[in-house]
Structure formats: C-alpha cells, structure tokens
Amino acid sequence: MGENVVSEKADAMLKGQAEIWETLFGFVESMAVKAVVELHIPDIIHSHGSPMSLFQIISKIDSPTDETDTKCLARIMRFLVRKKIFTVQTSSSGAETLYGLSRSSKWLLHDAEPSLAPMVLMQNHPWQLAPWHCLSRCVKEGGVAYEKAYGCGIWDFAAKNPEFNKIFNDAMTCTASVAMEAVMGGYGEGFGRFGSLVDVGGGNGNTMAAVARAFPHMKCVNFDLPHVIATAPVHEGVSHVGGDMFVSVPKADAILMKWVMHDWNDEDCVKILRNCREAVPEKTGKVIIVDVVLEQEGNGLFDETGFLMDLVMVAHASGGRERTELEWKIILEKAGFPRYNIIKLPALQSIIEGFQE
Ligand SMILES: C[S@@+](CC[C@H](N)C(=O)[O-])C[C@H]1O[C@@H](n2cnc3c(N)ncnc32)[C@H](O)[C@@H]1O
Q1: Which domains are present in the chain?
Q2: Percentage of residues in the chain with pLDDT exceeding 90?
Q3: Nearest protein CA to atom 9 of ligand 1, as residue
C-alpha cells in the first residue's frame, strides 16, 4: 500500500473521529441555549440596547445569589459566540469584552414577537427529553416513545399535567405566530374567499386570531381537545370549541390544520381528513394543511430542520411523521381529496391545499 493511501486513510479516520466527537456532544448547544433563555440573557442585552460586559449582564440577572458564577456564564457565552448565537466585541477602552445579540439570539427573547424562546424551553424540558431515550426501543419493539417513557401519549400526558400543558401550549403559541406571518404573507388572500373557517387542533387559538384580525367578516372557530380549550385565552372574533377530531369537526367552508397531521400516522390522518371532508361543503369545501413537505435533496434554509422534526415526531408524537409530496398526495387521495396544491412559504412549513374535485 502506497504512503499516500495510508495517509489518506489516517486522515479520513481522524476527520471521522472529530465529526463523531461533535455529534456525540450535539446536545451541548441546545443545553447552553436553554440556559441563556432561562437566565433571560438575550432580553437583558436587548433591554440595554447595546452590547454588554459580563458584569453588566450578571448585575441584571433575576435573583442572583452570593454564589452566582460569572466564570460559568463566561464559558457559556464564549461557546455561544463560537456558535454565532451572540456577537462579541471589545469595549472602546479595550479593557472589556462586550456581548451582543446576533440574528439568531434575536429569536430568543421572552414576551416578544416573533420569538422561539418558549419552543426552546419546551423541546429541551426534561419531560420532552425522556422519550428520546426510547428511540432505539421504538426500532426494536415498535410502538410510541412517549408511551414507553410515560405509559401514555403526549395529549393524555398534557391533559393530566397542567404545568406541561402550559409549557407545550406556550411553545405552540409562539411557533404559531412565526408560521402565521409566513402563511398570511403567502396565502392570506386565499382565506378571504371563505365565510367560515375552522382551525382543527388549533391549540390556544393564536392562528385563528391572526386570520380573524385580517378578515373580520369571517366566522372563525378554534377547535381542540377540551383541556386545551379550557385554558385558551379569549381572542376577538374567534370562538373556541372543544371536542375530538377523530369523532367529528365543526362545519365550515374550509378547514385549516397547522402542525396537526404530522402528529399522526397515515391511517389516523386519513380518519381526521375524512372528518374534515364531512365538515366542509361538498365539491367546494377544502382543507388547508400547514406542515412540512420533506425534500430529500433539498438544501433550502429549513430543509434540514424538516428532517430533524421527523425524528421529533418519533420521540413525541403517536406514530406521526413529516411527509414528502408523494406521501401527502397518497393520504389526501385516500381521504377523498384527489387534487392538491403545494404553496412553498419562507418558513419551516408549506401550505398543502386539498380539493374535493
Ligand atoms: C402540535 S399541536 C399544534 C397546535 C396548533 N395547530 C399550532 O400549530 O400551534 C397539535 C394540536 O392538536 C391537538 N389535538 C390532539 N389530539 C386532538 C383531537 N383528538 N382532537 C382535537 N385536537 C387534538 C392538540 O391538543 C394540539 O393543540
């Protein structure tokens, strides 16, 4: 074997080793981001209005103790600067390091819109992390990760656990605002044609609130499980209805379903879609699905996250999955929507319209 071949092999082994080190510590980045969100660091820098030194940041942290560890925060910030979550610069005196918000950490503000902070806290909560440890068992034994971790699916877990219900619904509320900005931009006028619209599995009703604001003439219904509706806030122009989409859904000109189909396997999706078909007028009624459309070779901004979300569905959903265009076509056809149209959005999700003829 030539020397070159040996060194190429050694080089490939070394690169592989480095890649696996990074991969096996993949969780570190999420945990560091979760820590700064819990400490409200992005909010502190945002309120200050310009980059801050570590000591300025620490002085604003809520309920500091005698043991508050500036050096620990320095290490977290140093790592997140490398990851481009925060920016760094030297003060004009040259004596201090100042930390600022990057385009990423602007998405980590509490009580701001748009924000993904509640989603960071929900996805990285110990309750959501436990089912991930059951992934290999899902392969070997089949079944649902959440049930293996807790003996029940995520919706029953939320119904029994008000604290988790709130954490989950807050995360859905923030992601609904983010997605709805893209939906209203890319599809908004499409809603204007309907006299009534039902959001099936609409959570807190934030999605419908955005539609009702844009189209005050429309009858807007937010439909979800009773325990979700019980804590949903009042939104002008939106009526909340509790129920089970596997039994029936309220009647309307069209049905909206955002981030619902991906929670379920194909058989369940067909059942839900058939109930939607029952609820809309024959021939003219349609279903508007807002969900990921996977593209195996896609290299768009959100394509990688689509594949991450597919595994999130293994960990958290009851047989759910993200779908390719062909997979969407198959379930829509089975449920009585033989024609479909996909509208790409500048967002993680696309719009998949299903027509009855
Ligand atoms: C992933 S969340 C999406 C929430 C919202 N559409 C959004 O995008 O923010 C799925 C929603 O489906 C609701 N859901 C689950 N099972 C349901 C059922 N059988 N009937 C009605 N809603 C259900 C959940 O309570 C939850 O609010």
Answers
A1: 2-108 (1.10.10.10), 117-355 (3.40.50.150)
A2: 94
A3: 172
